[in-house]
Design brief:
Largest sheet: 2 strands, antiparallel
Helix content: over 70%
Order of helices and strands: HHHHHEHEEHHHHEHHH
Strand content: under 5%
Number of helices: 13
Number of strands: 4
Distance between the termini: 29 Å
Radius of gyration: 20 Å
């Protein structure tokens, strides 16, 4: 194979390595179990992945801007508990905007600390993870939440409804992905997010208000978390106060699988969606081939590490580098 062809293949893998990995996973699980590509199974996986996916869309903006958000799992628990509690006190028409407003306040506080006070995002959001968890437990009194009248509320439409035969959670996920994809890829704000994540100092000297961009990214992340909390609450009309615990790591895994760099400046909404689907289909495929749940955790971790390694290897043109 000529050097030109190798370079072309390497360039293709560098750009589309995550899509190649997705196809390989799909083919492998299909050969292992023919039910894997059953339309009902695919729809079920997409529906179950919608909550994680909606959260990942917002965090993608945060990561591309060069920051992290480890508070989204606790924040999702908070938004779910709040909207369920306010549903019976205020009714769904008032409970939903009230929950969004409270969750956006949390996102604004984090954005202020990271953007305007320039505190380390890892430290801030790690601290907020515990703080919001404590806030959730305090708000709920340590109790789980349930809607009293589960049969007489239209609130269930967000998690259980369908439109044109497609579950509403999928429609919300796809619609939000399309909107945020255009925002990130086709608008001046999206270009500012890439600039701030790529080189914050250069972005500042070029006239970009770095603090404002970071602040807005955290607001967008909290909006997506509130949307995920709405879907979660609507799906079961009840929830534990720890329902989002651990989701922050799955969200980051999906974003990294999508090719975004934790150093900032790279990533797309489309590839984040692919990363979310890879996680969802991996877990579903392992279940269909009959692996125990504890084995699935290990295999999922191995596949994630392998996918990230191959993606990095494709970008540098070799499987490993002697230079640390």
């Amino acid at each position: 194979m000529s050097g030109v062809n190798k370079a072309q293949i390497g360039g293709f893998l560098a750009r589309q390595g995550i899509l190649v990995a997705f196809v390989v996973f799909m083919v492998g699980f299909t050969l292992a179990n023919q039910r894997f590509l059953d339309p009902d199974n695919i729809m079920g996986v997409m529906r179950s992945s919608a909550i994680l996916g909606v959260m990942a869309l917002g965090v993608t903006f945060v990561v591309i801007s060069g920051n992290l958000d480890l508070s989204v799992g606790s924040m999702m628990s908070f938004s779910t508990i709040v909207v369920l509690d306010l549903h019976d006190k205020l009714g769904p028409a008032l409970a939903i905007p009230a929950m969004f407003a409270m969750t956006l306040c949390l996102g604004a506080f984090i954005g202020f600390l990271v953007g305007y006070l320039k505190l380390n995002s890892l430290i801030v959001t790690l601290g907020m993870l515990s703080a919001i968890h404590g806030l959730t437990l305090t708000y709920s009194g340590g109790q789980n939440m349930d809607i009293a009248d589960k049969e007489g509320t239209w609130f269930s439409v967000f998690g259980q409804g369908e439109a044109l035969g497609i579950p509403v959670p999928i429609l919300i996920f796809v619609g939000l992905a399309a909107l945020l994809g255009v925002t990130l890829g086709k608008t001046p704000f999206g270009r500012k997010v890439y600039a701030v994540g790529g080189n914050g100092t250069a972005a500042t000297f070029s006239g970009i208000r770095r603090a404002r961009v970071v602040f807005i990214c955290y607001l967008m992340s909290s909006f997506c978390v509130a949307t995920a909390g709405l879907i979660q609450a609507s799906r079961s009309l009840g929830s534990q106060n720890t329902v989002g615990q651990g989701l922050e790591l799955e969200v980051l895994a999906a974003i990294i699988l999508g090719g975004a760099s934790l150093l900032g400046g790279s990533g797309t909404i489309f590839k984040t969606v692919i990363g979310v689907l890879i996680l969802g289909f991996i877990q579903n495929g392992l279940l269909l081939v009959g692996l125990q749940f504890y084995v699935q955790y290990v295999v999922t971790w191995v596949i994630i590490i392998l996918a990230v390694w191959l993606d990095i290897a494709a970008k540098r043109g070799k499987l490993w580098s002697p230079i640390a």
